[in-house]
Amino acid sequence: MSSLVERIETDLRSAMKSKDQETLSTLRLLKSDIQYEMTKTGAKEVSDSDTETVIKKAVKKRQESIADLEKAGRTDEAELEKRAIEKLRTYLPEELSEEAISKEIDAVVSANPDESNFGKLMGQVMGRLKGKNADGALVRTLLQKKIGN
Questions:
Q1: Which residues, other chains included, contact 109 with Cβ-Cβ below 8 Å and sequence gap of 6+?
Q2: Which of 2, 22, 68, 89 is a plausible cystine mate for 48, CB 3.0–4.6 Å?
Q3: How many domains does the chain have?
């Protein structure tokens, strides 16, 4: 079993013992998502990188939920989701800074000076950032600024 999954399970047990219902429900949902991923792929265990992918999907899902909850005026539930996102992010490596992402974008754009297709450039940038924790929305925004789209 991966060390990240073990850490999540340890934290889950700690939340049970301390009766921290908010953390407990967040980690139970995360564990369920990890179990679903294992079932979907047929794997006996999941790697740390796969676990990070599952966590990123969970964070993204919760961010979308926050937007919907705020539109509906349910700010208390949106705050719960924000706290859950913060808990989930503790299991992810630190995100790349805007400067580091800009350097990668500059490298891709300078290597392809005639390329104006946003999709191709975005694919190359994301390929270079694979395995690093980079926010895709930030990458998209910075690349659009760089090529003027």
A1: 115, 121, 146, 147
A2: 2
A3: 2
What own/partner pairs with CB < 8 Å and gap ≥ 24 does 122-130 have? 128/104, 129/96, 129/101, 129/104
Q: What is the pLDDT of residues 49-66, one digit of tens each?
A: 888 889 989 999 999 999
| Closest alpha carbon to 102 in 144, 142, 149 | 142
Where residue 142 falls (left for φ over 0; alpha for ψ -120 to 50; beta otherwise) is: alpha
Of 118, 119, 113, 136, nearest to 53 by C-alpha is 136
Q: Each residue of 97-123: pLDDT tens digit?
A: 888 888 888 888 888 777 778 888 888
Same domain, yes or no, for 47 and 66?
yes
DSSP string of 61-86, one letter each residue = HHHHHHHHHHHTT-HHHHHHHHHHHH
Query: Terminus-to-terminus CA distance in the chain, angstroms?
Result: 44
Burial of 65 (0-12, 13-18, 19+ CB in 10 A): middle
| Together in a domain, 102 and 72 | no
